[in-house]
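Notes from the 1:1 (GR / supervisor)

We went over the backlog. Supervisor wanted to see one worked example end to end before approving the batch request, so GR pasted a single chain during the call. The sequence is below; no edits were made to it. Supervisor asked that the structure be written out right there so they could see what the output format looks like.
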Amino acid sequence: MNNLKRILFRLLAGIGVLWGAATLTFIAINVTGGDTALAIVGGPDAMPTAEVLARVRIEYGLDKPLIVQYGNYLGRLAQGDLGESYRLRVPVLQAVTQQLGATVQLALCAGILSITVSVLLALLTARRAQWIRSFTSGAELTLTSAPSFVIGILLLLVFSFYFHFFPASGSQGWRSLVLPTIALSLPIIGVLTQVLRQEVEDVLEQPFILTARARGMSDTGVRFRHALRHALIPLVTLSGFVFASLLGGAVVVEMLFARQGVGRLMLDAANSKDVPIVLGITLLAAFIYVVVNLVVDVLYGLIDPRVRAT
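Structure output shown during the call:
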């Protein structure tokens, strides 16, 4: 019953997050400078007449007060209608779906690499010699402080322009995915490793670890059989942070490496004031974030039985 109540509360909170994301993005897009009707007809280069702009405003409801436009938008959302892109002239769902695959591919590769490397580093460096911990802590701090675009530029200079190991741009083939994945992963690895190592070090000081060692279990066995399970709790808790980092970093990485994806589509739509695309991608990101946090809440209860009792 407690689990059901917690899930229902999360669902209600998720609906609030979706509404807040749609509302804030709608306000931000509509209060910025620029004429949406002008963007619809093709921008200033199209040189439309006043009559054409007036017809466009009437057709898209832009002649109505902002509060009315907002109400109409929420009504369409309730019916599952995200609208049509002003610039691409296709439904928003179709435009996003066409670019979603490349972003999901990049995010999955970066997420798997980040979690795998972070867990291994935390398990292998916890409670080691002081020089090892100092070196790894310094490297993690550097990675955490470095923005993805700085790491990406360095990777391009070394592995694309100097050694020519990997292509500098494009989305074709696995080789074009290597550098963007590393650039997106390294800052996340720095944060996750610091958190996980602290958890592993705390676990290694627990009495049951001494019991396991007294029974003859090797240090490697203790770390991977006992410490690893307890390290999963903060890892699951940080899943929301990992997702947000992957989604936010994908925008920069896709532009830097000239890759297709939702991040690049979002930036182009914001520059051209393509309101339906911006709102659609924002809602997609908020929806995925809500789902991730709901799954994390369920998994947290499975991993830590104490949560189910509260």
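Supervisor's comment: The chain is about 80% helix and 0% strand.
Batch request approved.
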